Amino acid sequence: MNGIQSSRVDDQVVAIEAGMLGCMVGDALGVPVDFTSRDSRRESAVTGMRAYGTHHQPAGTWSDDSSLMLCLADSFASAGVDYQDQASRFVAWMQDAVWTPDEEVFDIGYATREAISRLEAGVEAMPQLHLHDN
Q1: Which of 13, 53, 64, 75 could form a disulfide with 86 if both were Cys (CB 3.0 to 4.6 A apart)?
Q2: What does pTM read for this prediction?
Q3: 40 known ligand binder
Q4: 64 carries a ligand binding annotation
Q5: Of 123, 73, 79, residue with least CA distance to 93
Q6: How far is Cα 15 from Cα 44, in angstroms, rounded to an integer?
Q7: Domains of the chain
């Protein structure tokens, strides 16, 4: 790889890291006000990190959304596009709180729990699909 190609790769890595960090900051801003109404946000806009709120977490805590994004990024970096590797990392997150800010899975949606539980039970991560399955 020459210097120009290396520079482009470095720029891409920085852009990916910045995008992920932006997602995590937005996620952490939203955790304390998760499931609250727009009216309550108009009355008390989120202008900085808040503690506790909906999920009783310290300020700056990210949610399952960021944790699962980190699992996916870790999988891509370690194994490329490998659905079984991704599945194992999602299971590790749910069971062992991998990639959580405080070693705790404090909220998980029904569909997410159901999907990861199926992976844990051995359902294939990406079965062969046919055109009529779409």
Answers
A1: 75
A2: 0.85
A3: no
A4: yes
A5: 73
A6: 32
A7: 2-121 (1.10.4080.10)
